Amino acid sequence: MIGSAPITASAGDLLIINANELHFFSPSDAVFICLHVPEDFFSVMNVSGIRFQTLLRGSAQVKRLFEEMTARMAMASPGDGFFIMSRIYALFAFLIDSPQAYRLSPREAARNANRDAAFRQILTTMRTHYAEDLSTAELAQSVFLSEAYFCRYFRSYTGESPLRYLQQLRMNKAAERLRNTEESITDIAQAVGYADSNYFSRIFR
Question: Which runs of consecutive H residues, i.e. helices, occur in the chain?
């Protein structure tokens, strides 16, 4: 999931996550090469404000550039940094000259930034206070949205309802405690927000 759009990628595809775009990966054990490029990389080259379409499928040129970078990293030579940077420049020269690239207007950029900031605030609240009795009404109020709009907004980003997302977050935290502590099921249930350990046992699978 990148932004509010579900994306299905295959081996050899290039996924591009633009600056400040929210994203989720599933399954979590997928193997991929991650290239993180600082946002100011583009301002130095006088192409600030540039954005890219999310998915580029099976480009032979992109595949060759990544193969060259990974092969060079395995060599551990003094000139690795210069070589890899040359391939990164070549990659973005290719992308910027392709239909993958586009520019946002200042108004569009501001709207996207405000929307994404609100959603990051929601996720921070849920990840920090997952053990508390959170309601959709409270979460909606925290970002000044109606409850109905908030639920639609949340589902458009995650594919799940807020309460389903919260439940999954609690289950993940419970699984961590089960692996890493000697706590009882009752203690773990209470620690992640379930006063009724029987109910917790039924939903924890």
Answer: 40-44, 60-75, 80-96, 106-128, 136-142, 147-158, 162-180, 185-191, 197-203
